[in-house]
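Fig. S4 source data, part A: sequence.
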Amino acid sequence: MTAGFRPEGTEGGVLPQGRTEQTDRITMRFNCLIPAALVAVACLGSPALAQSGSFAPVIIVNDRAITGYEFQQRQLFLRILGAEPGTIETEAREGLIDDRLRLDAAAAAGIKLTDAQIAGGMEEFASRANLSTEQFLQAIGQAGVAPETFRDFVRAGLIWREVVRAKFGPKVAISEADIDRATSVVAGRGQGPRVLISEILIPVTGGIYTEKALLAEQLVGEIRSEGDFARVAQLHSAAPSRNQGGQIGWIPLTNLPPQLRGIAAKMGNGQVSPPVQVAGAIAIIRMRGTSQGGEIEPGNISVDYAELLIPGGRSAEALAEAARVRGEVDNCDDLYRVAKGLPAGQLKRQTLMQTQLPADVAREIAGLDDREVSTNLTRGNALVFLMLCKRSATQSSDYAALAEAAKAGAGAQVAVSESGETPPVINPDLGFAKGPGLAVMRDELTNQRLGQVAESYLQDLKANAIIRTP
């Protein structure tokens, strides 16, 4: 499911199914340890060990007991999920206490879950290991983890999602200014680790997600090489990179949706990810290289700027008009009001990669911050009122080339599978070279903000709880 708080196809949702800050802290490790950890799971425990815990209370949380058996089970479960050996006992204790508080909060709010919701959450969690619920239960059962332990773990996360959605969801609003700040160069978006990947984006729409999810799982099973990946991409991907077999150049790790970053950060060269739901699609990636990266590359910086042409060149009248306009506008959007009624072409706004800027514009913009203005340039007999709208570091320089190649090949004959299926229509808004769009960024920021208030709320519940050892 998507890591955004409004998963695709879930009207009014705020937390992805089965995903909370509790589960995400653990599954960053779990995604890449499974299925390798499950292969060796017989060494981690046994059904006999699971029975060694007493059913007597070991912790009391607001008169709700946590038994020795539950404590032992949670430790076994965390070990399978790859928790650090030295932290397992503490993580199990704190996790069980938090779960009791989450359940108390849900009861106080009158929130309940259906069996179908819990089953769906278990299925989603197991799918992160590319397993069915039954396969996952069988695997953890080899280490003595009871199905009820897994069910309770998922239930607490799901019900907390509902509590957070009901209590805080309507209060969280992400503005375009928030998104601009988050994607700005100043915020450091695009710095740090970079990845070289191939991508497959299988588009999904309401009502066909299950069908596409099954297809994605089948396709992952067929991929054994880069050639296999390219073949699958050409037949099933809707991203502009399809015509290059899904290959894109180096991109910042932050170009990937949050639900893919943790997976990609732990992948080795040649590894293929499990299918992951992202906005509007199911994603599969293949790792081809990793780099620690560093500063933002100029080729990954996009520049949104506007030029308003004021007749008169550098005359006193033109400069006075430029000063008047500057006094009336706070941002580039305001220029549309100023230019209302003017001849077409007198106001031009565009977004280019920094390396694609005209030389004179690049020189002027280099010294500007967002929403600052230069009047040093002229075009013929017109003064250029040049405004930097914003710099962003969310696109790869590869994206423009991929989009143009896809556009050029739009009328070309497309490959057809043996079953007669033709590839989906290319969607230029898909693809990780493009970087996260407005909807993805809004979901990501909502996720972050709700995660912060949810953690604060949980700490308040803990501070006001009576927690004791019998």
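Fig. S4 source data, part B ends here. Residues 187-297+396-435 form a domain with the Chitinase A; domain 3 fold (CATH 3.10.50.40).
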